[in-house]
Design goal:
Length: 347
């Protein structure tokens, strides 16, 4: 039997999107539409090109699947509605957020917010990766000041159906290595240069200064300019997944100190590799960690150090705590995401 054709629209190819492409290809013939949407000056050209590409294929496909809301979700949603093709938009985080103080979130930009709103209105179903992207708030960034986000916070009149489908992870790739062994007194975090404040890079830098006997790694970026970096903090740059896995396998602890986090993919990867998680009390992070690690309730370096004191005294074990790896396997394995998506998407 020939496979049904599906139009998959994505602005980028992060590991979680690549995983979706792999298992969707088992059931469907994918027509992939993508452009370098980071080139904002070329957005009008890309919109025109995309319009004609989608128009040329819309009658051939069973449905349209879009990753992230943005400029690129506008015409697929509109044409899907006009041609009566189901359109599913997977929401990942920035497409549900507006934090102007940190220059973060697609919904802080009026024109882009409008494109997202219309896309969400025309879509058949929204597929957020966590319930916190529907509607949530916290005061982690500034105590006493609630920051609210989520697509229903920003678009309270939105009537489109939605279903939360968590990200999933390859439990056979992200594995501990007992032969490699953990390096005592090591922390690791993953973030990009643009996310240095958003994901707590400044907190990690301060913590490294206060704990000179411990080694800290930040993957995903080079050492930032204009900041005094202690000698025990190493910036690893962008790593191949196999190299990143090795650093997870060798590290005691993983730090996810985000002010906003759509899901926490690196957190799950590190937990699968045996890292003890230490995360902020925002979005889905506490739910991922559960009782396998520690939660920082507010963005305070002194409180972080206080929370860490008993942990460090126990080195890389937590008395009576369940396995971080087993928690991710139970709730966030790739087969779970695959089965949930296949149960919703047309054959």
């Amino acid at each position: 039997m020939p496979k049904s054709k599906v139009l998959l629209v994505t602005p980028s190819f992060q590991s979680f999107i690549q995983q979706d492409i792999i298992f969707l290809s088992e059931r469907y013939e994918l027509i992939i539409n993508t452009y370098n949407w980071k080139r904002k000056e070329l957005a009008p050209l890309y919109l025109a090109m995309q319009f004609f590409h989608v128009l040329a294929h819309i009658n051939q496909v069973k449905f349209v699947l879009v990753h992230f809301g943005g400029y690129w979700s506008f015409f697929p949603s509109l044409l899907g509605k006009l041609f009566q093709k189901p359109v599913f938009i997977v929401l990942h985080g920035t497409d549900c957020a507006s934090i102007p103080d940190l220059n973060y979130g697609s919904l802080r930009i009026p024109v882009l917010k409008w494109f997202c709103q219309k896309s969400y209105e025309w879509a058949s179903m929204l597929l957020p990766v966590s319930s916190s992207l529907v509607k949530s708030s916290n005061d982690f960034y500034q105590q006493g000041r609630q920051i609210a986000n989520g697509f229903l916070h920003h678009f309270p009149e939105l009537k489109t159906r939605y279903q939360v489908i968590p990200n999933g992870f390859d439990i056979n790739f992200w594995i501990p290595d007992t032969a490699l062994g953990k390096n005592s007194k090591t922390f690791i975090a993953v973030l990009s240069a643009e996310q240095y404040i958003l994901k707590g890079g400044d907190l990690i830098t301060e913590l490294a200064k206060k704990l000179p006997d411990y080694t800290f790694y930040i993957a995903g970026m080079q050492s930032p300019n204009g900041i005094m970096i202690p000698s025990n903090l190493k910036f690893l740059g962008k790593l191949h997944p196999k190299d990143l896995r090795t650093y997870y396998q060798k590290s005691d602890f993983f730090l996810q100190l985000s002010i906003f986090e759509g899901f926490g993919c690196a957190l799950c990867e590190a937990m699968l590799c045996g890292c003890i998680p230490i995360g902020s009390s925002v979005n889905h992070i506490p739910e991922i960690i559960g009782n396998t690690g520690y939660i920082l309730p507010r963005r305070d370096i002194n409180l972080l150090r206080k929370i860490l004191q008993p942990i460090l005294q126990q080195e890389n074990t937590i008395e009576g705590a369940p396995s971080p790896r087993e928690r991710v396997i139970r709730f966030y394995n790739l087969e779970n995401r695959k089965n949930l998506l296949f149960s919703l998407l047309p054959d």
